[in-house]
């Protein structure tokens, strides 16, 4: 037994004296080890060689550590607070439950390592590269990390707040279940990476470049991405809200189930991109250029913008609502199976635009050039004013409550169109072809029909006040039109009183006897009536906006 005890004592003495420590070093022992650098500052200290592969509860705080390598080590519950590293290499190592407060690293390299439950606070991480590593539960607060490079890493449950990470580069990196807020990431490059289940709020990514990456189930709120390039990137089930992407470029991207509420896309460029179920409500789109882009099941709602250009793009099964466009141009674009409500287009150009199976209501187009459009669908409460429509094709179209005012329509083909309760005032119709047109309860006043063929047209309770040749008047009469106010007066006198729900506007009725005419629910805007000629006319629920009643 005595010999056995002696053997263990000798073994313990041997390992203690050999420099392979059985326990983690004290701070004093670390300081003694650092004295090696007093002779040569270029020496890289290998802590594993001196103290073994596990450091627990080691206090490195306040030390100038110079050039250090942790290779194949486990470091736990240790403090690097206020430490200074000329260079730090962490390789094939694990760092758990440790802190870096007010730490300065002039050059760092982390490779094939793991970090868990690590705090980096008010520190400077300069020229740091992290690759092929896994970081989780790491908190980076009030830290400066310029030129940070992340390559082929897995990051989860990361918190970055109030930090500056300028000109960083993320490559082939996964960021999951993390939060970045109040942080400056300007000039960052993100390539072949994925962000999932994460939140980025009130941060700057100015002049960023994001490519071949994916954003999933994440939220970007209050992010400044102005002047950035985003390409070959996919976004799924995420929010990019109250953010700034002005003067940015977005191309060859795919976005599905994305909210872009209150986001600034002014003077941005979108090319070759697909938006699926994306919400652009209340976005800022002034100066936006869209080319070769598709929108499907999207909401383009609640915005007012100017200088927008759209070309070679398609919008399908989408909603366009409460939108105002000024000084804009839409060319070679198509809308199919869309719902349009409360749309205003002014001082703009619509060129080679196709609208198929469109359902629209409350649309106003003013001072706009419409060239070579194809229109099919069901539209109501439409105002077209001081505009030009050239080489249009209107097919299988239903229009009601149309107000066509002071406009020029030429070289247009009309086929299978029904117009109900509409008004045409001081327009010019030149060289148009009309076939299978039905106009019901409508009126024409002050129009010029030069060279327009209106054969195969059926009129019902539709009134013309223009002066025509006898042949033209006879032809219109055979089609069912009421030609001239004198014929309208004769019709009433003969006992035809029912003109309820018609649209007879901008007409001087003051010189004809209206007798017992029924104008209940009619649109009678801008008319002149004589009280002496009204007699027992029924104007119940009629729209008399702008009309006058003389004695």
Automatic annotation (TrEMBL):
Domain of life: Bacteria
Name of the molecule in the record: Pentapeptide repeat-containing protein
Pfam families: Pentapeptide
SUPFAM superfamilies linked to this entry: Pentapeptide repeat-like
Gene3D superfamilies in the cross-refs: E3 ubiquitin-protein ligase SopA, Insect antifreeze protein
